[in-house]
Automatic annotation (TrEMBL):
Compartments, as annotated in UniProt: Cell membrane
Residue ranges of every copy of the Major facilitator superfamily (MFS) profile domain listed in the record: 23-433
Matching InterPro entries: H+-coupled_symporters (IPR051084), MFS (IPR011701), MFS_dom (IPR020846)
Signal peptide stretch: none
Organism of this sequence: Paenarthrobacter aromaticivorans
Keyword terms: Cell membrane, Membrane, Symport, Transmembrane, Transmembrane helix, Transport
Transmembrane segments: 35-54, 60-83, 95-113, 119-138, 159-187, 199-216, 250-270, 290-308, 315-336, 342-362, 374-398, 410-428
Bilayer topology term: Multi-pass membrane protein
Protein name (record): MFS transporter
């Protein structure tokens, strides 16, 4: 790497703790909208299948619903390139305003889309369209909120600040899970399948408006403002990422595969898995999922505090080792089919996932220099999510249908954990501390 591509030094201007807290909150709120949107879709997958793909048998309808879920993730890299370019060239703030507005609007639109019984084939077509709008905006949201939050962090708390992006993701999933569970508790099964499922999607617009209000009041990060006053070595951020930062991009993809497969498997797909493979009611599975997310939110900052002291590499190795050893026994525990075994399995999963949840954001964000960071992180993250994480519910459903084994999704998780382990052992040696100090 030549001198013109080295990371830009951190700006020395004074940033108050109050500004930092508002920056973290503003960055987190949009990420919360993203994960709320995707969680609600995944949690209501069985009902969405019945409303938009009613002419298929239940398994085929569920596969179609998850296929739409998975296919929309392939739009995310396009959003990452589009929003990343403007974020690196013109600033993080305005791009983050656009992404949260688009996500909120698309979520409400899904809630208002008539079913197949009302408008025929136009219903699944509109569902696909709005899911693609969500995915396009989400392609710039996660990476933007990660960059924004980490760039506001003090040097000795970069993992802790970055962890709040993951906490907000869990919070969005939790709010979605609780909203879905509440809808199930307060309505009949018939009403839930007919119209009550739409309420959580419409409520997503309220969170989006709150995100717009919070983000409109903040400035761009000190690091970005400093970089703007210096010569621009990269005219096209995307071209520079592929020319000069291929190894950094591959490392970010590897770490993201482990986190995204884990989080989509256990926070989005697991309630559907429990409903279709055990006798536990969907409402109970959603409540257990909510408890899992609370545990995850509590443990992630503690993992991040530890990473600020020892670096991320050791925690990522521990995550990979624990997941490889424990994932099959935990699936077997869930397969016992009692409410207690299901909840215990979910909570133990959360404890393991917290290790990567507390480290992934800062580890991947600080691999890239400021002038290509939004694009580099966005493209790497969304390639991993499109190819592995977002497809986890579809692949898991297909694996069970093809093999007949309810344990088959566990081996997909082991594959993802193995990738993280290899990246941590070999590629991150000496890099995690350097990345956090840039």
């Amino acid at each position: 790497m030549n001198e013109t591509t080295k990371p830009t030094p951190v700006m020395s201007e004074t940033v108050t703790n109050s500004i930092r807290r508002r920056a973290v909150l503003a960055g987190a709120i949009g990420n919360m909208v993203e994960w709320y949107d995707f969680a609600v879709y995944g949690l209501f997958a069985v009902i969405i299948a019945a409303n938009f793909f009613p002419n298929q048998d239940p398994t085929a309808g569920l596969l179609s619903t998850f296929a739409v879920f998975a296919a929309s993730f392939f739009i995310r890299p396009l959003g990452a390139v589009f929003f990343g370019h403007f974020g690196d060239k013109h600033g993080r703030k305005n791009v983050l305003l656009a992404t949260v507005a688009l996500m909120g609007a698309a979520t409400v639109a899904i809630g208002l889309t008539p079913s197949y019984a009302s408008i025929g084939l136009a219903a699944p077509a509109l569902l696909v369209l709005f899911r693609f709008v969500q995915a396009f905006s989400a392609g710039g949201e996660w990476s933007g909120s990660s960059v924004y939050t980490v760039e506001y962090a003090p040097r000795n708390r970069r993992y802790l600040y970055g962890s709040w992006v993951q906490v907000s993701a869990s919070a969005g999933t939790l709010v979605g899970s609780l909203t879905a569970a509440l809808c199930g508790l307060l309505s009949s099964e018939a009403a839930l399948r007919d119209w009550v499922w739409r309420i959580p999607f419409i409520l997503g617009g309220i969170i989006g408006v709150l995100g717009l209000i919070l983000r409109a009041k903040l400035e761009d990060t000190p690091e970005f403002r400093k970089a703007q006053s210096e010569p621009k070595p990269h005219k096209t951020p995307l071209g520079s990422v592929f020319r000069n930062y291929r190894s950094e991009g591959l490392i970010a993809i590897g770490v993201t595969i482990g986190y995204s497969v884990s989080i989509y498997m256990f926070s989005t797909y697991l309630p559907t898995y429990i409903k279709t493979t055990t006798q536990v009611r969907l409402t109970d599975a959603l409540l257990g999922n909510s408890l899992q997310l609370v545990v995850l939110m509590i443990l992630i900052p503690f993992a991040a505090i530890l990473a600020d002291k020892v670096g991320s590499r050791k925690l990522l190795i521990a995550f990979a080792a624990l997941m490889i050893v424990c994932v099959v026994p935990l699936f077997q525990l869930i397969a016992v089919g009692t409410l207690g075994s299901v909840i215990l399995g979910q909570v133990l999963f959360a404890a393991i996932v917290s290790l990567i949840g507390g480290t992934a954001v800062t580890t991947t964000t600080r691999l890239f220099p400021i002038d290509v960071r939004y694009t580099g992180l966005g493209v790497s993250y969304n390639i991993a999510v499109a190819g592995f994480g977002g497809t986890a519910p579809f692949i898991s459903t297909w694996l069970i249908g093809s093999t007949g084994s309810p344990l088959s999704p566990a081996y997909y998780v082991i594959f993802a954990a193995l990738i993280v382990g290899l990246v941590a052992v070999f590629a991150l040696k000496g890099r995690d501390a350097a990345a956090a100090s840039n």
